Amino acid sequence: MVRRPPSSLKPTVIDSLLLAATRIATFEHEQPLTQASGFFFERDARLFLATSRHVMFDEASGHRPNRITIELHTSASRLSASSSLSLMLYDGGMANWRQGTDSGGEVDIALLEIDRGVLPPDVVLQAFTPAHLAAADEAIEIGSSLLIVGFPLGFHDTVHHLPVVRQAVLASAFGIRFQGLGYFLTDARTHRGTSGAPVVLRNPAAAAHDALPWKLLGAHSGRLDMSGRDLVEDETLGLNCAWYADILTVLSQDPPAQR
Q1: pTM for this one?
Q2: pLDDT band at residue 8, thresholds of 50, 70 and 90?
Q3: Rounded to whole angstroms, how far apart are CA atoms 168 and 172?
Q4: Over the stretch 143-178, which tens digit does the pLDDT of each residue have?
Q5: CA atoms of 87 and 112, how far apart (whole Å)
Q6: Beta carbons within 8 Å of 240's beta carbon, 6+ residues apart
Q7: Half-sphere CA count of 109, side-chain side, radius 13 A
Q8: Could you tell me which residues are beta bridge partners of residue 98?
Q9: 143: exposed, middle or buried (Cβ count in 10 Å: 0-12, 13-18, 19+)
């Protein structure tokens, strides 16, 4: 048997989308709690971590971490090189993350600013910007093929520290708040740990040189189920909630604003 040298197995091109997502671990001091997904968002040279708000705090389940860690690549040529960055969630008893509300109540998206001074000097990442958000009047066809980029059950490429991608379908009318709440539906197989993952659509208008040729539509929150479902006779719907990403323009304002 002839074996290829290891160097021939290295990919020559990594889709920039994989470098826009990061694995999140939550802690209460040194006690590990949960794992989740997140992504980077940049506005006016300021860098943020975006994820589901319930990753930061969830009163219903008693989930109250006081810090998180995220995983960062530290070499453009060697993806196996990574570093863990610890971020505190509170300062003097006040939350460091930003969350918002709309007419339907709380929105399950949170934004935590990252001081660029604490990043590794050779950090390698990609960040969405307001330009990646879908316009308010943009028509996105029902049934469109979407991707959810994250870390289901914490699963990922542990050698190269890369997320995995699940295929999804737009399952409700985009731009319409499903049942009056600030999310739309996707049809996809998802798991715990995917909370906070970016939900994206390939941008057909992107130029060949665009660093991140995707539209950011939302942030995956969780699976949607029916309260009256017969647990024996009826399967789960297989549908998920994804909160509209346009709230990031509100949360990334300085100072942050409510809408």
Answers
A1: 0.89
A2: very low
A3: 12
A4: 999 999 999 999 899 999 999 999 999 999 999 999
A5: 9
A6: 148, 168, 185, 186, 187, 188, 190, 220, 221, 222, 223, 224
A7: 34
A8: 111
A9: exposed
- Residues composing the chain: 259
| Domain of 108, in residue numbers | 16-251
d(CA 222, CA 225): 10
Amino acid at 221: S
Whose tokens are 């918002």? That residue is: 100
User: Is the CA virtual torsion 188, 191, 192, 198 positive or negative?
Assistant: negative
Is 218 within 8 Å of 243 (Cβ atoms)? Answer: yes
Match 């070499």 to its residue by tokens: 75
The CATH number covering residue 139 comes to 2.40.10.120
* 155 assigned to some structural domain: yes
Is there a contact between 114 and 125 (Cβ–Cβ < 8 Å)?
no
